[in-house]
Design brief:
7-stranded antiparallel sheet; alpha+beta; Chalcone isomerase; 5 helices; homodimer; 33% strand
Chain lengths: 181, 181
Amino acid sequence: MRYKTGTILLLLFVGVIFISTAKTQEPFSPYVGDKGEIQLPKDYRTSWSYLGSWVVPDKNAPGYGFHDVFTQPETVKAYQKTGEFPDGAVLVKEIRKVESADMTTGHASWAGPIDVWFVMVKDRKDRFPKNTNWGDGWGWALFKASDPTKNVSTDYKKDCLGCHVPAKNTDWVYIKGYTVK
Amino acid sequence: MRYKTGTILLLLFVGVIFISTAKTQEPFSPYVGDKGEIQLPKDYRTSWSYLGSWVVPDKNAPGYGFHDVFTQPETVKAYQKTGEFPDGAVLVKEIRKVESADMTTGHASWAGPIDVWFVMVKDRKDRFPKNTNWGDGWGWALFKASDPTKNVSTDYKKDCLGCHVPAKNTDWVYIKGYTVK
């Protein structure tokens, strides 16, 4: 009987160790690897929420393109409740070519083929201090249409942050165009 | 015993009648009433799929506004498979004011406050021949920001169809700007 109790306790102990190990190894986000490698989410167009668009029609402007922004539905709910982006929130911004024509409704513009995607992942715990694509509360990534599997940003301060400076007070995000809020 | 069998048969008969009655009374769409009254869906911004945007920035143009279009996720899947809008497909088009400013990325436009919603409901069975908001394979509706519960269109041929004529060959819908396809 004593032996049996010992076995049960041992099994319980092993079980607890196993569960806690599994918990610490649970990934922070399905779109982020162990070392902070950011991946482009695949199904955001059909199953995520659309936040809004920005249109910069001038081909010579640095931000030329039709920018459509998406996030997870749970991020919308959390933001509507707290006014802040929750840990793990992902913003996907498509940059597409701007197409336009004179139509019966007036001169209209719409989004054409994709150029690049910008992805931001909210990190409230400074998880990847050694990764130069993480900082200021976010992970930052840039994917080109030629290879959507590869984040070509090597340093967010150099490749991403510049354009976001005017939105610093709203956690680096241009929330003004997000009509869902 | 004979009596018992008779009772069972009667109950089965009543059950079948009840089920078939319930089936015929099942509404065509959660957004359409018995006589074809179209309602504005409520949760499309967070749980539906975004199809694309049209921007007509000229305030004097007949189609002035930032047009964002949404549909049910299952409509996207069906369209991707068949190239056609399935029975019951709903398109919600928001028309918002166009806001714009010079930004670090260039002169940008984005969507401001809502003006109106256009709603189209695909009907492949000509269900409401007496309702003047139904025809050409669709139910047509227009809601104003001042009262989102009231369809102010009284005759789709007068209130809606005019602007859709150039898109007649694509089932009256401007699919060119729908980047999800």
